[in-house]
Amino acid sequence: MKFRWRRSNPRPDPGITEGMQRLTFTRRAMLVSGAQVGVAGLLAARMTYLSVVDNERYTLLSESNRVNLTLIPPRRGWIVDRYGKALADNRVALRVDIIPDRLDNRSAVITRLTELLQLDNDTVDRINRELDAGGGAQPVEVAADLDETRYAAVSVNLPELPGVVPARGFVRNYPAGPSVAHLIGYVGSASAEQYKESRDPLLLTPGFKVGKDGIEKDFENELRGRPGARRAEVTARGKLVRELATTNDTPGSTLQLTIDADLQDYAARRLGTESGAVVVLDVTTGGILALCSMPAFDPNSFTDGIGRLEWKMLNEDDHIPLLNKAMRGLYPPGSTLKPMIAVAFQAAGVDPEETVFCNGGYTLGNRRFGCLGRHGSINMRHAIEKSCNTYFYAMGKRVGFDAIAPVAKAFGLGEEFELPGTRQRYGTVPDSAWKRRRFDQAWSVSDTLNATIGQGYMSVNPLQLAVMTARLATGRKVEPRLLLDSQAALPDPLPYSPDFFHAARQGMDWVVNAAGTGARSRLAIPNIRMGGKTGTAQVRGIRGSNRGQSGEWRFRDHGLFVCFAPVDEPRYAAAVVIEHGLGGARAAAPVAKDVLTFLYDRTQALETLASLEAGWGGTMRDRLQRRYAAYQAAAANPMSPAPTPPEVGAATGAPPAAVPNAPPAATAPLPDPGASVPAPTAAPAAPPAQTITPAVGTPP
């Protein structure tokens, strides 16, 4: 067999020469070299851009690795009264905060802080809740207003307290405490939502506070000021090496109010243990001199971060200390309405000298509407003096409430005033059109009789009563103001004849200075006469022997009083409402007397207050602190009896009453705007009807 021999290395393809192979290699080398040159060019260009164009930015970033910039919270602007006395200022304070994202071993740190600062359980609970709710760089306050000893104890133990930041700064201070709580409001730490909305780093700065309510909130931009800054050199771990530079903060603007700080504090203290409100106006300008609601809270507690127990105590109080009763409390005005009704009668053509015979009440069909007594033949002035319901029933029926309602509105009832830092509930001035809209029912004569004496559907707040009185005293459209303005113009006259006001003012003069219902509260000041009108407002219908003069606190009648002084040349007007005070002459008029006395004779007024506070157990702050201490003790020992609320009636010397035990929702009548005590003649489609008919012997 023959085998064909084959060469193991075949000949190269004669089509690919050595020169061609060299050429292919050269092309590849050039391609790789070009890519390398391109990349090098890009790197060079980028380095040139970073070193030339972005030089300043990266220099700053490099600097920040060793320089720490800390914002200095600005001092809030002061809020002062008409004389420059502080209602809200700032004081130097030592504080300790925790920055959550720097916190390690949270439990150990809080335990150590509890030992060093002697924190109570309520404060520890608040810190844990705020740490759970917050996070990041948002500071959580541990304690404020520390003494030097406790502050130093934290400072020397900082190495074992990561995330803890001690600081010296300013804290908001309210010198009068509870007296200005509802007027000024309070401040607190910014919420997470506020930071997300503005992304302002100042909101995360430890110790910085923002307005949360009232004047503090409405004027936040004016009061805030501009922050300062502190530059310091630090190590990689944040340890201070040296201070570099400091830019001082710019305090916020000072805000001046029409309030008289001393009068505000006196009026609040004079309310004592009662639940109610006092409003005082300067009738020449409309400036609000005092606007008090009691009981109240201490706004300094909110500044430091209110604890869970204290918040719980305030919320459980059936006297509702968190409600501004001066502007958000709604009450039937009762007989305080009668002087204004007298003007409406005259505008409708009633002669003030015309008389009505009072035999103790007024009969409408088969129903009897009672009066305070048997006054015989009585005209308009004496009807105001004696608070004769029969006169107003008879004239109200003749005139009709549709003619009275526009006058009531002209006097400020049912009106929401343009006041900063306030949220008002404007109540109800009813008429036939209102009832048709609200209940789809026709207005009845009994609706008129009830509304004419300030009951039924009528509801107002204390500020409106003070404005009504100021307009009665001057005959002008006095507008309430809170911001002091030296250029305040004289109010315009009301669209009624000046003669219409004479009978009303004279009747109010006789209420106090003759044999009227407020005679026991006349001023003991030579040549100063106060005119006024008492009022008793029922909070539920009369049933049998239940007259609103006894029983549970929440079912007792309200006491009201409106007044102005001096009678011959009015300068001041005031309104006082005492919730469930049993009567205007008994509860409200003595408070008004002392408040107006303070305007003319401070020594006499303060002597009266000192003797009263001795019986109440000290000042507002003293009583509030004792009550909170008792509440804390009761919470710590659930088996101990609950703290006893203050006795109702103590503010006016009335005998002790039953301990209030109503739930908060059932306290005073605080319906939505437009709501009030149901009228006696409501048809089946309306809410359950109540008979609001004053009985013989009910206090005015």
From TrEMBL:
Disordered: region residues: 637-700
GO molecular function: penicillin binding; peptidoglycan L,D-transpeptidase activity; serine-type D-Ala-D-Ala carboxypeptidase activity
Chief localisation class: membrane
Subcellular location: Cell membrane; Membrane
GO CC annotation terms, alphabetical: plasma membrane
Pfam families reported in the protein's UniProt record: PBP_dimer, Transpeptidase
Entry keyword set: Carboxypeptidase, Cell inner membrane, Cell membrane, Cell shape, Cell wall biogenesis/degradation, Hydrolase, Membrane, Peptidoglycan synthesis, Protease, Transmembrane, Transmembrane helix
Biological process according to GO: cell wall organization; peptidoglycan biosynthetic process; proteolysis; regulation of cell shape
E.C. numbers: 3.4.16.4
Domain Penicillin-binding protein dimerisation: 72-244
Membrane topology: Single-pass membrane protein
Protein name per its UniProtKB record: Penicillin-binding protein 2
Native source species: Sphingomonas lacunae
Gene that this sequence comes from: mrdA
